[in-house]
């Protein structure tokens, strides 16, 4: 029998991204971490499962190495005792981890996904969740990304990348929702 509540998947809300910003990288959605905190509060208040995903860098210069300050989780998204932390070393939270097994063992079928960055680890985790048959819901105002230069040398804004990623995932891999939608869904049950 499916778990009656969705699980919150919090992807890579780590201090490395603050370091990137401090070094001059520009991001979109400045309130994303506040929305993640709102989601955590709602899931905790309703006794819904939460899984924290942490990225561990593997390259010598990675800001996500466990020995570096960027590996730490931002205070607003810190796990509480009993909330599992799953460490990944690639973009997908499902590769090289036991996330899928944990979800299946608890009969969880619906995943609410938030975190960073929209077009990397969040997107890859969301695509795999959809392909694995989960009812994936990506929270558009609880994720963010950074400006990037494409292979053609053109500059792409974080806002455009974020919007395109949501468009690519919508319908086929996930339903795109807001924090308000998710919080309201608890009140409706």
From TrEMBL:
<protein>
    <submittedName>
        <fullName>Cysteine hydrolase</fullName>
    </submittedName>
</protein>
<dbReference type="InterPro" id="IPR036380">
    <property type="entry name" value="Isochorismatase-like_sf"/>
</dbReference>
<dbReference type="InterPro" id="IPR050272">
    <property type="entry name" value="Isochorismatase-like_hydrls"/>
</dbReference>
<dbReference type="Pfam" id="PF00857">
    <property type="entry name" value="Isochorismatase"/>
</dbReference>
<dbReference type="InterPro" id="IPR000868">
    <property type="entry name" value="Isochorismatase-like_dom"/>
</dbReference>
<feature type="domain" description="Isochorismatase-like">
    <location>
        <begin position="7"/>
        <end position="179"/>
    </location>
</feature>
<keyword id="KW-0378">Hydrolase</keyword>
<dbReference type="GO" id="GO:0016787">
    <property type="term" value="F:hydrolase activity"/>
</dbReference>
């Amino acid at each position: 029998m499916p778990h009656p509540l969705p699980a919150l998947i919090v992807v890579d809300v780590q201090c490395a991204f603050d370091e990137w910003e401090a070094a001059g990288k520009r991001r979109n959605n400045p309130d994303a971490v506040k929305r993640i905190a709102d989601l955590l509060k709602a899931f905790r208040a309703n006794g819904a499962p939460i899984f924290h995903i942490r990225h561990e860098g593997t390259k010598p210069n990675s800001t996500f190495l466990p020995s570096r300050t960027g590996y730490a989780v931002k205070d607003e998204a810190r796990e509480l005792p009993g909330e599992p932390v799953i460490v990944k070393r690639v973009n997908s939270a499902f590769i090289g981890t036991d996330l899928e097994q944990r979800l299946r063992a608890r009969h969880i079928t619906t995943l609410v996904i938030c975190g960073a960055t929209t077009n990397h680890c969040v997107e890859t985790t969301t695509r795999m969740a959809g392909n694995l048959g989960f009812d994936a819901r990506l929270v558009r105002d609880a994720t963010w990304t950074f400006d990037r230069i494409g292979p053609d040398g053109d500059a792409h804004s974080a806002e455009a990348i974020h919007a395109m990623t949501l468009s690519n995932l919508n319908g086929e891999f996930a339903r795109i929702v807001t924090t308000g939608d998710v919080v309201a869904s608890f009140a409706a049950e």
